[in-house]
Amino acid sequence: MQILNGLHADEYLLDTMTRNYHWTVVGPQFNDLHKFCDTQYEELYGFVDVVAERARSLGGRAACSLAEFARNARLKESAGDVPDARGMIAGLLADHEAVVRVLRGDLETCAQRFGAAGTSDFLTGLMEQHEKMAWMLRAFQA
Fold it and tell me: Which residues have CB under 8 Å from 47's CB, separation 6+?
């Protein structure tokens, strides 16, 4: 359950950071980045929900308070930091890439140590979604 609660916290934090950038972006890329973040945070909110539901379906409890998210998150928030549009894209890209790296290790742990093929498969699907989001951020950056 530790793996799922860490992932749940990371998804929630990444969703929140994406919303923050959606609300605070300024400059010539405003319209494009505002819409882009809107699409990404909608998808991320879905990830938050399915991770919590996966934890519950396995008989666990999904962490659901801000204090639990802060304690379990492996991503780090830059509180109060509002970078320019390029910095926003770079920060979100780095966070998606970090989630992908963590998921690679977590899915192996689930499969090999716990014999949890279903959860390993679930994590693989999320990893693929984060890889796609990272690709989109890299394309936006070009």
Answer: 11, 15, 126, 129
Say how far apart CA 79 and CA 104 lie, in whole Å.
27
CA–CA distance, 36 with 86 (Å, rounded to integer): 13
This prediction's pTM? 0.92
Tens-digit pLDDT string for the chain (142 aa): 789 999 999 999 999 999 999 999 999 989 999 999 999 999 999 999 999 999 999 999 998 889 999 999 999 887 777 899 999 999 999 999 999 999 999 988 888 887 788 888 999 999 999 999 999 999 988 7
